[in-house]
Specification:
With 89 residues, the protein is mostly helical. Helices cover 78% and strands 0% of the residues.
Amino acid sequence: MEVTGFFTALVIGLIIGALGRLVVPGRQSIPIWLTLLIGVIAAVLGTLVAGALGVDDTPGVDWIELALQVVFAAIGVSVVAGTYGRRRH
């Protein structure tokens, strides 16, 4: 992976992680680096699932792929916020 690809993945991961965090109701007490990590993983998983479904390359904005990524991020944020919050207290 090139340096520009790495930084692009980080930026997209941050955006996807933030969107996932916005979708989950309530307050999530997890650090931003963990949100970024969840976002990057969710972006990769969403892209893989979209590819498996055949909706990863559509004309214009890939709304289905983006929705899948946000759903994976929301699930990840929910799971991690639940376990991270319990572990810290």
